[in-house]
Request: fold
Amino acid sequence: MRYCKRILLQKKNRLHAAETAARQVKIELTQIKQLITFLKKQLAIIEVEIHKMIETNPTYKDKFARVCKLHGIATLSAATIIAETGGFELFENYKQVVSYAGYDVVENQSGKTSRQN
Reply:
């Protein structure tokens, strides 16, 4: 889904460039607009499928609801977090999740030496 969003943004930028060019090629504008429409439809289908998967699986539904409570987390982000962490099955506590995500900067200090791991 992220790939589709990235391609959609590229095509929107290309459309803008084509529309503001000194010489506009009508067929190019038409093709870019058609591609943008197609990508938007594909993104909508993917999002519907994600929601269906979540709604039909009680375990995912509960985890999805919990992750979505976090500020700034929407459908795609919540689905990605759950998928990337294996539904949090391998984690026993929040500290392990923080470590997995790379947010557990540890500072080691000994005498005059200071390091971050």
Q: What stands out?
A: The chain has five helices and two strands. Strands lie at 107-110, 113-116. The two ends are 33 Å apart (CA to CA). The chain has two domains: 1-56, 57-105.
